[in-house]
Amino acid sequence: MPAHVPAVTLPGGRMPEVGFGTWRLRGDQARLAVREALAVGYRHIDTATMYGNEGEIGQALADSGVDRSDVFLTTKVRPSDVGRERVVLRRSLRALGTDYLNLWLVHWPPPRRADRHQLWNELLAIKAEGYVRDVGVSNFSLPEIDELTRSTGQAPAVNQIDWGPVRYDANVLAGHAERGIAVEGYSGLKNTRLGDPVLAKIAAAHGVTAAQVVLRWHLEHDVTVIPKSANPDRIAANFDLFGFRLTAEEVSRIDNLAASRPRGSRWGG
Ligand SMILES: NC(=O)c1ccc[n+]([C@@H]2O[C@H](COP(=O)([O-])OP(=O)(O)OC[C@H]3O[C@@H](n4cnc5c(N)ncnc54)[C@H](OP(=O)(O)O)[C@@H]3O)[C@@H](O)[C@H]2O)c1
Fold it and tell me: Which among 49, 76, 228, 235 is the best mutation to test ligand 1's pocket, defined by most ligand atoms within 8 Å of the CB?
């Protein structure tokens, strides 16, 4: 793993704080984009059973010549797969061309409480058997996480949530930190108005793009970020985040972009 990329320590290993998102990348486009991402230095790939691209990601990994042990691989199980967890895991492992995952996430909370518990218990059992280094959740609120933790005594290692400047909520970050849960943010570029004058001014001060400022802002908050791009130039630029840092004042100006948000964050209590 490149030494200059910050990483979060999870119970089962280290997760690079910049990963490559793959939602909506399919077929050859997925294979080529992941190969490009690995070539420019990404060592963390985010996928899901639902994305239908695990096979292409496995192919890109095999083609890249990068050691499996140097890559942090995340996939996600759908709530509708409750009761079929082992079948789904076997398929994901085969498609990805590996015998273990670094992180397996519940993609979103199953509506029924009994299903939430069953899925979580099964993930914990599979982790204990060594097929998965860490298990976590996605799109869970803090009360939903507390319910899982109460039922099993084991908290998720990660919660992957919709995040970005306009979603910023200090209480959500504090709530996860108190519970020892790493926050991974998704759709941070998509949900940001990249032409916002606050971002443009900060970007100009550092000689970078507004997108790079948004991604760097995640890192300043210790939030793992997983930008997706199908474009080789943007794939490279989104990983080129280690030659500058934002000042505390710049971070707080970006945090304040959330002030115009009409509703509170849906991830809090
Ligand atoms: N757990 C969940 O429920 C969940 C939900 C959504 C996403 N995710 C994960 O999070 C990843 C990231 O989220 P996302 O794909 O929704 O959104 P994103 O990465 O925030 O944004 C992707 C969009 O931004 C464009 N883009 C990429 N780099 C750019 C740049 N430097 N400047 C301007 N535009 C840029 C991309 O277009 P081009 O491809 O043309 O560059 C694409 O349209 C996903 O791929 C997936 O792995 C998880």
Answer: 228
